What we know:
Elements: E1 5-8, E2 13-19, E3 26-33, E4 36-42, H1 44-62, E5 90-102, E6 107-114, E7 135-141, H2 142-157
Parallel strand pairs: 1-7, 4-5
Antiparallel strand pairs: 2-3, 3-4, 5-6, 6-7
Amino acid sequence: MSSPVHEFSWPDRVVVGTLGLPGARTFYLQVRAGTQIVSIALEKQQSALLAEKIDEILDQLITIDGNPFSVPTSTPIELVDNDQLEAVQEQFRTGAISLGWDPTTAQVVVEAYPLTDVDADDESLTEDGAIETEMLLVRMPVGAARAFAKRTREVVGAGRPICSLCGYPIDADGHICTLPEV
């Protein structure tokens, strides 16, 4: 039995969004093509690092003589997506993410794999001992990738305010640095 691969070669929408209140948010990478929607849970740090690395790839491509892939230096305004997540049905919680570049299609490629906790008797092992696992494969054109990174940075930054004294997030119900002494 082969594992499901949720593949989006030219998605209509690729965004990171959250559900929940700051301090208790769950981050999702959501991809849609037509009526097919896949949502996978991410950690906040995974989201931030994904945006950072996508921007790094695009910034490196700009330095190639003649910028043959027409990589934008900033986010194309027509690609900005500030809409909420669509109906979220979590496919899996992300463990590993890989990021690459496909020069044949001029797309950033994101592969996401679920967290795994496999033991020797697990049915997800194939006959040769390899682990069968589902994955999300997303290919984004350069403009969409730039817009994705911008939105993701904004979503990550929209959490709890940071305490100027200790540098840790301030919860809605108080913070050790700002609580009145008893």
